[in-house]
Amino acid sequence: MLTATEAKLLEALEPRAAQEGVEIVTIEVVGAKKAPTIRVYVDHPDGVSFDVLSSSQAWINDIMDAIDPFPGAYTLEVSSPGIDRPLRTAEHFVRFAGEEAAIKLSAPVDGRASWTGVLAGVEGDEVLLDADGARVALPLSAIKRAHVKGTIDFGS
User: Fold this and answer.
1) How far is residue 33 CA from its own chain's centroid?
2) pTM of the predicted structure, to 2 decimals
3) How far apart are CA 78 and CA 110, in angstroms?
4) Domain assignments of the chain as residue spans, ordered by start
5) Candidates 3.30.365.10, 3.40.50.2300, 3.30.300.70, 3.40.50.1000; correct CATH number of 4-79?
6) In the prediction, which pLDDT does 86 show?
7) Between the CA of residue 17 and those of 9, 28, 36, 76, 129, what are the distances in Å?
8) What is the average pLDDT across 145-153?
9) Is the pLDDT of residue 156 over 70?
10) Is 116 strand, coil or helix?
11) Is-contact 56 49, C-beta < 8 A?
């Protein structure tokens, strides 16, 4: 799910995140190689307030300055996971069981690399998804990207 660079950044940030009571949901490195954008998505048990974001931005920036992950300039963005929350770990798939999710695979399962359905948890090394009237087991190691499909109730 994460590139080698993203995994290395996550490894550098997770110990401090635990001290701060913040979860690093995922990290993305996007954009040009000469001036990439590093996106760090954080979550907090009480929700992601402005205070959580600003304090996280400060310590994440300090760590990034210390490890200097890219020669030259880069942009750091720290944000909440949002309504379409990324799913990265087995624990994420368990926590959001019952929610609709979109999953992209690196290798097809049953002839498909893109799946949308209701998360039914994790069994061993596989994510269980109820899709198209059947339960499918998707290898966690084959998941490239996954996110909860957020819904908004407009109170109709």
Assistant:
1) 21
2) 0.86
3) 37
4) 4-79, 90-148
5) 3.30.300.70
6) 96
7) 12, 17, 22, 16, 30
8) 90
9) no
10) strand
11) no
